[in-house]
Specification:
Elements (H helix, E strand, L loop, with lengths): L1 H15 L22 H16 L3 E8 L4 E9 L2 E8 L3 E6 L2 E6 L5 E5 L19 E9 L2 E8 L6 E10 L2 E11 L4 E11 L13
Antiparallel strand pairs: 1-2, 1-11, 2-3, 3-4, 4-5, 5-6, 7-8, 8-9, 9-10, 10-11
Pfam families: LolA
Keywords: Signal
Protein name: Outer membrane lipoprotein carrier protein LolA
């Protein structure tokens, strides 16, 4: 049961469930981009875009939080794609690229294919990453040595919300968290630790599971 819950919480977030957004509150006509935001917010969004587009890779340990269970493993990101390899509660591997998300459960061999074309997670996989045009920036918030932005599809915000969390130490950003809320208000999050940037990554990491 615990193994099934981990996989289900991940799949819920990437869009296997659809419906009204409810508590997220992104209904109605959306405002594209971030020109409507105050100057400080626009500046920080530019910083995030420059940071993400300046990465050749990012590798980290992760802890996943979901509706009922947790998992952990290794996260590898390169522009336009990422891989998640689970160690706990059991072996699973997920790859997102080219508008697709594929999860393979090593426990039973099951493979699940999902589309990211109408999912906020797909916004992170754009090359280059841009939060203008058909993207709506819904929130920018700052803390002690931290920065967080939330984004959604401008034309269809009810599909969900993606929140990127960064350490912001002496002006240097580091991605440390990815949070999502799907169309039925299911929450999913990754906390990233021991982050290493711009290290060599094998392209084998981004081969879709079969």
């Amino acid at each position: 049961m615990k193994r099934r819950m981990i996989a289900r919480s991940l799949l819920l977030w990437v869009g296997v469930v659809a419906g009204p957004l409810g508590a997220v509150g992104l209904t109605g006509c959306a405002t594209s981009g971030y020109d409507h935001l105050v100057t400080n917010d626009q500046h920080d969004i530019h910083r995030v875009e420059n940071y993400l587009n300046g990465l050749t890779s990012l590798q980290a340990s992760f802890v996943q939080t979901g509706p009922a269970q947790q998992g952990d493993g290794h996260f590898t990101y390169a522009p336009g794609r990422f891989e998640m390899v689970y160690e706990v509660p059991h072996a699973m591997r997920a790859v997102a690229r080219d508008g697709h998300f594929v999860l393979r459960n090593a426990d039973n061999g099951a493979v699940t294919h999902l589309s990211l074309k109408r999912n906020p997670l797909g916004l992170l996989l754009r090359r280059p990453v841009s939060f203008d045009g058909d993207v709506q920036v819904t929130n920018v918030s700052r803390g002690a040595e931290s920065l967080q932005i939330s984004v959604a599809e401008a034309n269809n915000p009810s599909q969900g919300l993606l929140t990127l969390q960064f350490a912001d130490v002496r002006g240097k950003l580091t991605l440390v968290g990815i949070q999502g809320v799907d169309a039925r208000n299911h929450h999913f999050g990754l906390s990233l630790f021991d982050v290493q940037e711009n290290q060599p990554v094998s392209e084998d990491s981004f081969i879709l599971p079969e």
